[in-house]
Amino acid sequence: MKKIAILTSGGDSQGMNTAVRAVAKTAMSKGMEVFGIKRGYKGMLEDQIFQMSALDVSGIADHGGTILLSARLSSFKDPEVRAKAAENLKKRGIEGLVVIGGDGSFHGAHYLYEEHGIKTIGIPGTIDNDIAGTDYTIGYDTALNIILDAISKLKDTATSHERTYLIEVMGRNCGDLALYAAIAGGASGVMIPEVKASTDDIAKVIRERRAEGKLYDIIVVAEGAGNILDIEKELAQKIDTDIRVTILGHVQRGGAPTANDRILATKLGVKAVELLIDGEAGLMVGMESGKVTTHKLSYAWENYSKSSEEDYKIATMLSL
Ligand code: ADP
Question: Which residue's CA lies nearest to atom 2 of ligand 1?
Fold first, then answer.
């Protein structure tokens, strides 16, 4: 394989640049020509493809965001659109494509391989940690640390004013960010999409905490666990403390990637290129029990990545 391309797609995450760098440098070191595709599948369709030099990826390992930019293109579900986009790779003689993104992006990569023989490899990049076939996705660790930093700041002001804070964090289907932020941040409660927790349970814990003389409560709520303003309203009818809502939002996706995310992104990026050199395709790379592993791209959406029930019990047990 002489020419490969890289794109980043879907929601961005910290460490995507680190992965782009690892893929590009590894491929260049093996004598390949490397092309960057801007704006994901949209740029692929619109022919926003350029040859990358070593300089393009120099000094980016610690930068959040993605130098290749990201975009969404819902029409990529249409086979005719994919055919047009694939043509832009073929006309340049590009045989391999590394896609860094979530399971939506992996769907696109899967079809490009099945329908057009483009040798695709997926690298899981999303802060949500919602992809099966890897213990951690690139960006998750950084986002988790941002949430922990926010929790510790909110604890200070919550204590001064003796308030109950509801903090909304990302995670539509997977509650890992909320669950592990609750465990690591010593939260008084957690609500995740995988478990139907009632505000009665949360209210009971808050009442018990206050009876013991505790001055604040931090409840971490995953966005997929329900509308936080409705949760606030329900809770307000059950407890006497002053409640405030903080929605962390996109701040969770920014900033320099942690050491863990950089190492993960680098190892997965190197493996992606090695697989292409070995003639493999239609695969995703992941890190499982400390080892780099591969699965079919479809593994990502055929197997649901959900939060650990055991760890949920730990979080609730320690909430008092
Ligand atoms: P993520 O990759 O983070 O899950 P999205 O679900 O938005 O993010 O997917 C990113 C892009 O991948 C979409 O904008 C679209 O171009 C492409 N994509 C998503 N789902 C499919 C699908 N079923 N078939 C083909 N392409 C898809």
Answer: 102
Q: Which residue has the tokens 């909110």?
A: 154
Antiparallel, parallel or unpaired: β 33-37 and 119-124: unpaired
Q: Are 50 and 36 in contact (CB under 8 A)?
A: yes
Which tens digit of pLDDT belongs to each residue from 144-176?
999 999 999 999 999 999 999 999 999 999 999
Q: Which residue among 8, 9, 82 has the greatest number of ligand 1 atoms within 8 angstroms of its CB, and so is best to mutate?
A: 9
Axis-axis angle for helices 259-277, 140-161 (nearest 10): 160
Does this model's pTM top 0.70? My answer is yes
User: Is 128 labeled as catalytic in the residue annotation?
Assistant: yes
Distance 257 CA to ligand 1 centre (A): 23
Name the band, by pLDDT with cuts 50, 70 and 90, for residue 197: confident
Alpha helices in the chain (DSSP H): 16-29, 40-45, 79-90, 103-116, 140-161, 176-185, 199-211, 228-236, 259-277, 299-302, 309-317
Tokens standing for residue 302: 């055929």
Instruction: State which of 13, 78, 105 you would mutate to test the pocket of ligand 1, scoring each by most atoms of that ligand within 8 A of its C-beta.
Output: 105
Rounded to the nearest whole angstrom, what is the distance from the C-alpha of residue 102 to the centroid of ligand 1?
Answer: 8
Q: Whose CA is nearest to atom 18 of ligand 1?
A: 104
CA–CA distance, 34 with 31 (Å, rounded to integer): 9
What does the pLDDT look like over 210-258, one tens digit per residue? 999 999 999 999 999 999 999 999 999 999 999 999 999 999 999 999 9
| Residue 306 pLDDT exceeds 80 | no
Check whether 97 has a pLDDT greater than 90.
yes
